[in-house]
Amino acid sequence: MLLKLDQPKTFIDIISIISELVTEVKIKVNKEGLSVIAIDPANVALVSFKLPASNFSAFEAEEEILGVSLDSLKSVLRRAGVGSNLILQTQDNTLKIEIHDKIKRVFNLALINIEQEEKTMPSLDFTCKIEMMGLDFLEAIEDCSVIADSCSFSVEEGKFIIEAKGLNSTNSKFSGDEAKIQGEKGKAKYSLEYMQKFIKACKLTDKIKINFSDDYPLKLEFKGDNFELDFVLAPRVETED
């Protein structure tokens, strides 16, 4: 396997985001590109990442699955600066990472055996589908995080509402002018601890798709020109607000 990225910043940023959910992953490489699907240790959140082969200036690979420590991979990738090129190769039982800028630097990471069955994206049907600016969504989640440890999403009377309640409360309402809203009514509550990790991807793309139903998993979709990054989060079901 030999993969070369001339502009690796998006890849580096996404690996950093994923590393906040899981400590090790299986990276799948085949003729279509590079992909990751992983579930966090608490079985609450799933992340799916796809980087098509067309993003690479060189792409030579048969189907391979690489078990890697994300802490180690993230630490190496952070050594790449603006304008660096990144080359990934497998040699024996290691992942060789070359960073090319003013000088050529080489790192070798031991591949690890991850005893997990291959994950797949679950098939989910949603009654509420929202498309909006990612930075607007980020601000609403940050507002909620200073109030409580969970937030609720709802669609009512053509508006998408993000709110949090504790001793204090906050809410952000988006109409059809600020968001594309599909669905007549629905409401679900989700953990802000996870949401704050997900929203770091808002800076990678202009728009975000938000999918949910009553007390049902949430799916966030971030699609750029050259990648797909999705998160699925289990709802927080409580008897009372």
CATH second-level architecture of the largest domain: Box
Fraction of residues in H or I helices:
10-25%
Quaternary state of the chains: single chain
Question: What's the overall geometry?
Answer: elongated
Structural class: alpha+beta
What radius of gyration results from the CA coordinates? 19 Å
Compute the separation of the termini in Å: 52 Å
Please tell me about this protein's structure.
With 241 residues, this protein is an alpha+beta fold. The protein has two domains: 109 residues, Proliferating Cell Nuclear Antigen, CATH 3.70.10.10; 92 residues, Proliferating Cell Nuclear Antigen (Box), CATH 3.70.10. Helices cover 15% and strands 46% of the residues. The chain has four helices and 18 strands. The strands form three sheets. The chain has a nine-stranded antiparallel β-sheet. A hairpin with a 4-residue loop joins strand 17 and strand 18. Helix 1 runs antiparallel to helix 2. The longest helix has 12 residues. The chain is elongated. The termini are far apart. The relative contact order is 0.17. The mean pLDDT is 94.
